[in-house]
Amino acid sequence: MKFKVRGIDTFASTGGRPFDKNKPLIIFVHGSGLSHMVWVLQTRYFAFRGYSVLAVDLPGHGLSSGESLKTIEEMGNWVGDVIGAVGCKEASLVGHSQGCLVTMECVAQHPKKKNF
Hints:
Blueprint: E1 2-5, E2 8-13, E3 25-29, H1 40-47, E4 52-56, H2 72-85, E5 92-95, H3 98-109
Parallel strand pairs: 3-4, 3-5
Antiparallel strand pairs: 1-2, 2-4
């Protein structure tokens, strides 16, 4: 699925199912230098069990355009923007390696968001 975040073309895998903003959302964040591909099995599992999933490619990674973000703070803020960009108000976040730091930073920056 392609969409815009801050005017930049962004790619996210949906686990083989259409994205539905009315279903519970899980956002998967990859580690440094990786892409959505690290989440293939996990996204498929949850997508076929009633969740909307987005395994996002951070800017400058995988199939997303733009320059790579330089700090964990920038990445955490960007993940928060993804939620709004796809028309959702809440999401569960899952991270791998550096993606764990990014998801924790996102939660710290958005303490009032539900379901983090």
